[in-house]
Amino acid sequence: MAREKPRKALQELLQRPGNQLCADCSAPDPDWASHTLGVFICLNCSGIHRNIPQVSKVKSVRLDSWDDVQVEFMAANGNNVAKARYESKIPPFYYKPTFPDCQLLREQWIRAKYERKEFIYTEKQEPYSAGYREGLLWKRGRDNGQFLSRKFVLSEREGALKYFNKNDAKEPKAIMKIEHLNATFQPSKIGNPHGLQITYLKDNSTRNIFVYHEDGKETVDWFNAIRAARFHYLQVAFPGASDVDLVPKLSRNYLKEGYMEKTGPKQTEGFKKRWFTMDDRRLMYFKDPLDAFARGEVFIGSKENSYKVLEGLPPSTQGNHWQYGITIVTPDRKFLFACETESDQQEWITAFQKVISRPMLPQEYAVEAHFKHKP
User: Fold this and answer.
1) Taking the CB of residue 211, how many other CB atoms lie within 10 A of it?
2) Which residues form the PH domain (predicted)?
3) Which has the closest alpha carbon to 200: 191, 192, 189, 211?
4) Measured between alpha carbons, how far is 191 from 189 in angstroms, rounded to an integer?
5) Residues 6+ apart with CB under 8 A from 250
6) Cα 235 to Cα 185: distance, rounded to the nearest angstrom
7) What is this structure's pTM?
8) Were 286 and a residue from 255, 291, 325, 374 both cysteine, which residue would form a disulfide, CB within 3.0 to 4.6 Å?
């Protein structure tokens, strides 16, 4: 009976505003808590809290025993109070992960908040907010697939991220304009829990580079430094835009990635298995998921501009090994793809529909025109 009273009090606290979602990743129905920080968290985040015992001690709301003092502390704090304290000075560009995000992003977010107190003391934000960052990252070689240490320099003033093949090299191996830069975490694809994929445009085609750092904080600092640089670039490019308008444009995850089969424009050649990446309106295909550049790209416009996605392939289609077809109709031609499973097919169709149902922005017409004039 004595154990029931604290448990009942905790259940009531979970119904308070702010406590119904995990304090760190917004997962619904958190049933763990840090009784030293006064926050309610989900099972996944509780595992990260366990790794910083000097800051956070966790218990299950339902399974562990609680004393009155601990329950009173939870009542006096809670997620909204902790947010006001530990998230008071988050820069608008800083990426706040949610539960679908990778382990590294969630772990570094939790450590930044409670262990390093980065959002209480702004001077601790120097690594990603200074407008300049220089350091070494392991970069995957384009031809041999080996990861080699390379010097990277990000400069907002120059509007570019550069990397150098040798530390003392005068000329960079590549100059990536902040205007066209994207970074997305790809731990499983790269085969490293800290793996980051950076893409940029070169001659209006997408280029990929794959990097990581042994220290997870370093990788996340690079990621947020890139977002900061893009934020300040967009503030100048779109002077009337609010932070709310700009933040979704700082970096983007891919709508979908995976293998499909495709055939060529004449649709008489056999289908070949390729790795596809849907990056906003660009559908790119690669021979290998870690290729530096795409074999080809397809622009996916909007339904107002006569783009459509259809389930299945035309009856006369031959040469596909996989049974679950998708036809994309563009103003110029049809593109034929085949998926291995029905669930893959449905996921791809959903991703295509999402893009096609969205009206095109003025700048996207220029991209579409470039695709049409490609040789």
Assistant:
1) 23
2) 130-231, 253-357
3) 211
4) 6
5) 93, 95, 227, 230, 231, 234
6) 24
7) 0.92
8) 291
